[in-house]
From TrEMBL:
Membrane topology term: Single-pass membrane protein; Single-pass type II membrane protein
Species, as recorded: Rhodothalassium salexigens DSM 2132
The keyword Glycosyltransferase is assigned to this record: no
Annotated segments matching region Disordered: 1-21
Pfam families: ExbD
Keywords recorded for this protein, A-Z: Cell membrane, Membrane, Protein transport, Transmembrane, Transmembrane helix, Transport
Full protein name: Outer membrane transport energization protein ExbD
Origin superkingdom: Bacteria
Transport as UniProt keyword: yes
Swiss-Prot/TrEMBL GO biological process terms: protein transport
Localisation per UniProt entry: Cell membrane
Family: Belongs to the ExbD/TolR family.
Amino acid sequence: MIGPGATGSRAPGPLAGLSDAEADETGGNALMPLVDVVFMLVVFLLLTANAVSYALKVDTPEAAGAQAHEARETVVLTAPHGGRGWQVDGAAHATAQAARRAVVQALDARPDAVLVVAAAADSSAQDLIDALEMARQAGARSVDVAARPLGQAAAPGQSAQQGAQP
């Protein structure tokens, strides 16, 4: 019975005569943690649903089948290393400007050629940057970078002098 001294209007049941603190201790509000988890899950799903609209579309290449690797013409620009200067297709050049002129001439003669910037492991980063800048100034359409790790021996068909080059 609810009378003037009653503190609440609790429905009749096993926990009807307990205070709120006693009901919590005995499991009267056992659904509250579950409600909290469900609420957090709903909030998480609402927040992540908006992320899909901000995603970037990426066009991935599709292979129609196996294709043979085509041999391409190359112009090799070797960065200075081990006391050697710039080289273009094996020809030594005293300065970077002379090497750049040689790269421009080689690319003019073979416009579809790929410029390969070869750098040894002991080449400085600045030499590699200079070589890439030289490729940009020469108007190279396609540039590859090749490097030989420290301590790697030359290929069996190369001589000791050729093996020192990247």
